[in-house]
Amino acid sequence: MEPTNIRFGAGADTTLLHPLVAAWMIIAMVLIFVLPRRKAIAPFLLAFFTIPLGQVLIIGGLHFPALRILILAGLLRRMTYREEASRNKFGGGFNAVDQAVVMWTVSALAIVSLQWMELPALIKFVGDFIDALGGYLVVRFLIPDGEAVRTTIKVFGLICLILGACMVYEHFTRRDVFGYLGGCALDAEVREGRVRASGVLGTIQSGTFGGVLVPLFLWLGAERKSRWIAGAGLAGATAMVITSGGSTAVMACGASFLGLGFWPLRKQMRFLRWGLVATLVGLHLVMKGPVWSLIEHIDLTSGSSSFHRYMLIDTLIHHFGDWWILGTRTNGTWGWEMWDTCNQFVDVAVRGGLLTLVLYILILKRSFAAIGNARKRASGDGKQEWFLWCLGSCLFANVVAQFGINYMIQLQLLLFPLLACICAATVRVAHAKTAKTKPVLLLQTANT
Rounded to whole angstroms, how far apart are CA atoms 58 and 56? Predict the structure, then answer.
């Protein structure tokens, strides 16, 4: 049965804002406004990933989570930016990835609003829309060039160090230090006798967060002056994966290394992709069950709910007629615990229908295409190619992880900075090629 606390209309009925959280939030917002644009991404991300999701300010019956307040502050900084040219508000200009993100968020809002047709629901969905599109616009604005990309990766390393240390503490004491602030549980989750540390993000979310960032830390470690933060980030990410105790986190980490492992075959990826498609089709034809049933056999840690992940996909396909136009509100009736859409693609489909799902996949497709095209242009520049490959491996790990978890606001703000980094990296290579000069290592210069 679906828990009542996650049904529509549930949530805090009074303000929950710890004094320390309020102070930290105010400091972060001040820094977002006063720091140079390329540095402002640091306080934004640090605050976003150290404040519990449940910290909320209620004004006139409207909920303003602390994380949404940070997004609104970032949007205000963008609106007051003095440069008039829109290309300067988006590093390299408004591109195909940006278009796909805007279309996806608008489609999701329009379709889910038509699905519910209720004013309270519309208010809630507008808040989600601000979180999604607003969050993307903020990080896209704050990551305009190579200097900001490097800062972003360093900040993620610091975040992983902090969260990893807190999760190790939680693993041994069974107390989540963020629980003392309120907004998340104090007692650690224990499944089949094993502690599953959650930190500030949640059990699966925290492990996924650390697992997908591994390629970026390995790239950063190649820079002599950044090795300490790269090593700290890698250690923290590893701790997050291990202490979270989830198969999704392990798969995300494994996918990171798998993506990096294809580096020697980077010029044959087209053949590998088609080979993978042919293999999956062949397996589907000879297997007793559908090819996606392979998911149910993945149990990298004790207590994994891999069968549920398989049933989500299988049930979604069999109920295509129920959700393809306007999504559905009745997926919980499809079978046992089908309300728990712990698969990003399934979650997007049931909330926004086929159009929204296609647009979401389009975001990923265009991002991979941008990386691939940029890598080809940078052929011969090993450092540049390797950096782009690490970005692609990080994105690949995110895609793999999304088959085991739906990306709520905090994981969206992990994916969006990655997309912003991809936009900044690929446009630099494109400009160098257009100017008929040798592609310059992205992170050596900053022009905006």
Answer: 6
